[in-house]
Amino acid sequence: FYRIAQEAIANAVKHNKVRSNSCSVRVSLKGSAGHGELSIEDSGCGFNVEEKRNVSYGIRHMEDMTRRLRGELTLESIPNRANGTCVKVCWPIK
User: Fold this and answer.
1) For each of the chain's 94 residues, which pLDDT tens digit applies?
2) DSSP string computed for the chain
3) CA neighbor of 44 nearest in space, from 6, 83, 7, 74
């Protein structure tokens, strides 16, 4: 979880064209009956997920780490959207 959050935060800081040269990043970790959820949301400019998925080592690395958890990775982002990107990982808890 730490490495996935680290990658998402690093991407937010490195790649986003944020307003006022500041970037807010919110990290949330939740657990409930049967599953856990890690969510990382940033205030950046967003990007085309499908274009980046095939060329981004960071995205592929997050997907690989999520598979190891037997989880599911969701990326939500729209280019030039005011509220940036959301990376969400859900995994089963026994």
Assistant:
1) 899 999 998 888 887 654 556 678 899 999 988 999 999 998 888 888 888 888 888 889 999 999 999 999 999 988 876 678 899 999 998 8
2) -HHHHHHHHHHHHHH---GGG---EEEEEEEETTEEEEEEEE-S----HHHHHTT-HHHHHHHHHHHHTT-EEEEEE-TT-TT-EEEEEEEE--
3) 83
Length of the chain: 94
The amino acid at 29: L
Q: How far is CA 20 from CA 27, 44, 78, in A?
A: 21, 11, 20
